[in-house]
Each structure stands twice: as structure tokens, then as C-alpha cells.
Design a protein that fits this description.
single chain; alpha/beta; five-stranded mixed sheet; 5 strands; about 30% strand
């Protein structure tokens, strides 16, 4: 299996508001940057979409180390939230529906195709790859504002 590193981040100007996502794939010294925009969204949606699109860009099953500053994303996998939500028909412990179900399902579909490990990194700190993913996401918002 090819070993890939994925850094992903989402951003939102207002929450909800215009949002962007950024992802960087690293494989054997090469890197590929991806980014996108949504006109009315939330930060959490952009965090999930960054990961989904990063994984979707892979052309075959890979071993993927995902690095994100999103506790929402990392904890859902690393602390068993997703398994509990599925077992409880997509309800949280307070019995309220899980938000962003369609994105969680899309992410589960992508992670099922790969061997994925999630790593939480500190946001807006000294990690240059996380900072670059954030810059890609925020640049999408700025580009959209300039296009108006």
C-alpha cells in the first residue's frame, strides 16, 4: 500500500457564512494542493469536506495519515463518536440528530477505501503544513469575496 500524508483544514468567515477548505497530499516527496469554496456553510462542514476531498483525490487504496486541527474530525474517529452515532441511528448522546450526517457518511465511504489514521495537530501554531492548509482554505473565501 502506498503511504500518503494528508493535511486538511477548513475555514469560515462567520459561522455560518462563506467557507473554504484546503488539503495537501504528500507522497514520496511530491505534494498536491486542493482547495474549494462554499457560499453558505459552517467551519465544521469545511473541516469534513477538506478531508473528504483529500481522500477522494487518491486513485487507489492507500495507508493515509490525516493531520487536522479539527477536534470534531479527529475525535469522531479516535474517540469512537462515529461508531456510537451509527449504533444510535445517527443520534448523539443527548438524543439529538448528528449534524452533517451526509458528510460523515461520505467520509466513512472514503475511509473504508483506505487505511486511515487521524492525528490532531494544534491549529495556527508552528506546523507549516497545517498552516498551509489553512491558508488554502482562507484564500478560497478571499477569492470569492473579490469575485463579488
Amino acid at each position: 500500500m502506498k503511504e500518503v500524508i494528508l493535511y486538511c483544514d477548513g475555514a469560515c468567515s462567520g459561522n455560518p457564512g462563506p467557507g473554504g477548505w484546503g488539503a495537501i497530499l504528500f507522497y514520496q516527496g511530491s505534494e498536491k494542493e486542493l482547495a474549494g469554496f462554499a457560499p453558505e456553510t459552517t467551519n465544521n462542514r469545511m473541516e469534513l469536506l477538506a478531508c473528504i476531498e483529500g481522500l477522494r483525490a487518491l486513485k487507489q487504496p492507500c495507508k493515509v495519515d490525516v493531520y487536522s486541527d479539527s477536534a470534531y474530525l479527529c475525535n469522531a474517529f479516535n474517540q469512537g463518536w462515529l461508531a456510537n452515532w451509527q449504533r444510535n441511528q445517527w443520534r448523539k448522546s443527548d438524543k439529538k440528530p448528528v449534524e452533517n450526517i451526509e458528510l460523515w457518511k461520505a467520509l466513512l465511504n472514503q475511509t473504508a477505501q483506505h487505511d486511515v489514521t487521524f492525528h490532531k495537530v494544534k491549529g495556527h501554531a508552528d506546523n507549516p503544513h497545517n498552516n498551509r492548509a489553512d491558508a488554502l482554505a482562507t484564500a478560497q473565501i478571499q477569492l470569492a469575496k473579490q469575485a463579488k
